[in-house]
Specification:
about 425 residues; alpha/beta; 13 helices; about 25% strand
C-alpha cells in the first residue's frame, strides 16, 4: 500500500488513500497524558472503484489514536462493513500520521540579540492591547466589559483616536458566547450614535456555542478569509471545556487553541471574577488563566441608583512585558438610547479609588485634596505601613514632598508624567 496523501490545518489532519478510495479525517487532535486523542471520520467508496462517490462509513466519533485496543475495535467495525480493503494498514498509517502531527511542535530557530536592538513593543490599541498577545478583562457581571470591548473594536477599525486610545488599524472578529446578533447590533448602533460616528461601521461577529478547542478550524478559516488581526472571546468560561480532573487541563487546552489561531493574532478575553477576587484581583477558575495571559485588567464600576451614567475603572493587574499602566477610568453615558464614552479620573471616585494600588491612591488623594498628613492618608486608604512605605518611595523619586508641618504634598501632575503614563 502506498503512503497516503496528507493535508493538515491547525490540529486537524486528513489521510487520502487514493488507490483504496478511502479518506480518514482526524480532527481536534490533542495530546493528553502521552495519548493522542481526537475525532475520526472515515469516508470510502462502495465498491472501491473509480467513479463512485465517497460516503461516510464510520464517525464522526471520538477516538484514541494511541490505543492498540481502539485501533483493533475500529478494524473489526470496518471489516464488518467491507472485507475487501486492508483496514489494518489503513488505520495504522492514519494513526501514525495523526500522532506525529499532534506531537510535532514548532521547529527551533536561532534568535540573535542584535535583531532585538531595534525591535519595539507593538500595540494593537495603545495603551491597553499589546499586539499579538492575549489580554484579559475580568470583573463582575454588569461591569460593562462587553461594552468597553465593543468600543475598543470600533476604535481599532478607525484611523483616529478615541478617548486617548491610539489605534493601529486592525480587523476584529467578535466571538460571542453570551449574547445574540440583535443584542450586539443594538450595542454597536448605540455606541456609534453616542459618539457621533457613521452607522456604516461594522464589526465581524460570530454567534458561538462550541468550546474553542472544537471550533478552532472553523475560526481559522474565518481569520484567513477576512484577514482578521484581533479576536475577541466573550466570554472565556463559555469558550472553555469543563470536565473532570480540575481546571488546569481545560485552561491549557484553551490557551493552546488560542495560540493555534495564528501568529500575530491579538486576543481580547472577557472573563468573570473569582469568588475571592475582591482580595486577589484574579479571574474565576484556574490560576493558569492569569499565568497564560500576557496582560490582565480588572474591571469595576460605580453607578448610582437611577443614574444613566456608569463610571468604570480598568485596573492593570499583570503584564509580562513593559510597565503596569496606571488605572484607566471611563464614563459611559446611556442617555437618549445611545452610549457615549469619555475619560474619567477614577481616583476622584472613592468606590473606584479603593481598587487602585496604594501608590495610586496616595497620588490621587494628594491631587484631589491637597497636602495631607500621614494619619489623614491612613484614614482614607486604611493600609497602615503600606502608605508610609509608598510615601517614602514617592519622595525618593521626587513625586511628593514632605513639608515642615508634617503634611505630604504632590508635585504638579505634569511633572510626574500623570497625563498618559
Amino acid at each position: 500500500m502506498n503512503e497516503p496523501k496528507i493535508t493538515t490545518s491547525g490540529r486537524n489532519l486528513t489521510c487520502l488513500f487514493e488507490k483504496e478510495k478511502v479518506e480518514v479525517s482526524c480532527l481536534f487532535l490533542i495530546v493528553e497524558k502521552l495519548a493522542v486523542k481526537g475525532e475520526i471520520t472515515i469516508f470510502a467508496t462502495f465498491p472501491p472503484k473509480e467513479g463512485f462517490k465517497m460516503e461516510p462509513v464510520h464517525g464522526p466519533a471520538t477516538f484514541n489514536f494511541s490505543s492498540t485496543l481502539s485501533r483493533a475495535q475500529l478494524k473489526r467495525t470496518l471489516e464488518s462493513r467491507d472485507d475487501e480493503r486492508d483496514w489494518y494498514t489503513i488505520i495504522e498509517y492514519a494513526c501514525r500520521h495523526a500522532i506525529s502531527w499532534a506531537r510535532r511542535g514548532e521547529p527551533a530557530q536561532m534568535l540573535w540579540a542584535y535583531d532585538g536592538q531595534d525591535l519595539p513593543l507593538e500595540w494593537a490599541l495603545w495603551p491597553l492591547l499589546q499586539k499579538g498577545k492575549p489580554t484579559v478583562l475580568f470583573g463582575d457581571g454588569g461591569t460593562m466589559k462587553s461594552t468597553i470591548v465593543t468600543i475598543m473594536c470600533i476604535a481599532m477599525a478607525l484611523p483616529t483616536p478615541i478617548v486617548g486610545w491610539q489605534p493601529k488599524l486592525q480587523v476584529p472578529l467578535y466571538l460571542d458566547y453570551e449574547d445574540d446578533e440583535d443584542t450586539f447590533t443594538r450595542r454597536l448602533a448605540q455606541i456609534c450614535t453616542g459618539m457621533g460616528l457613521p452607522d456604516a461601521i461594522g464589526i465581524l461577529h460570530r454567534h458561538c456555542d462550541t468550546p474553542l478547542i472544537y471550533d478552532q478550524e472553523a475560526i481559522q478559516t474565518i481569520i484567513v478569509e477576512h484577514g482578521i488581526t484581533v479576536v475577541v472571546i466573550d466570554s472565556v468560561e463559555a469558550a472553555i471545556t469543563h470536565h473532570q480532573g480540575g481546571r488546569e487541563g481545560p485552561t491549557s487546552e484553551f490557551y493552546n487553541a488560542l495560540r493555534g489561531l495564528g501568529k500575530g493574532i491579538t486576543t481580547i478575553l472577557i472573563d468573570h471574577i473569582s469568588k475571592d477576587g475582591d482580595k486577589k484581583g484574579k479571574a474565576i477558575g484556574s490560576v493558569m488563566k492569569g499565568n497564560r495571559a500576557r496582560s490582565t485588567y480588572e474591571v469595576r464600576k460605580f453607578q448610582g441608583v437611577g443614574d444613566k451614567e456608569v463610571n468604570v475603572a480598568l485596573y492593570h493587574r499583570k503584564v509580562n512585558e513593559g510597565p503596569l499602566q496606571k488605572t484607566h477610568g471611563y464614563r459611559l453615558d446611556f442617555s437618549n438610547e445611545s452610549i457615549a464614552i469619555a475619560r474619567l479620573d477614577a481616583g476622584r471616585i472613592p468606590t473606584l479609588r479603593e481598587g487602585m494600588s496604594v501608590r495610586e491612591q496616595v497620588l490621587a488623594l494628594l491631587e484631589e485634596q491637597g497636602p495631607m498628613t500621614l494619619d489623614a492618608l491612613n484614614a482614607e486608604i486604611g493600609r497602615g505601613d503600606q502608605v508610609k512605605a509608598r510615601l517614602n518611595e514617592l519622595a525618593k523619586s521626587g513625586k511628593v514632598v514632605k513639608g515642615d508641618t508634617g503634611q505630604w504634598a504632590l508635585r504638579s501632575w505634569e511633572e510626574i508624567g500623570g497625563e498618559d503614563q
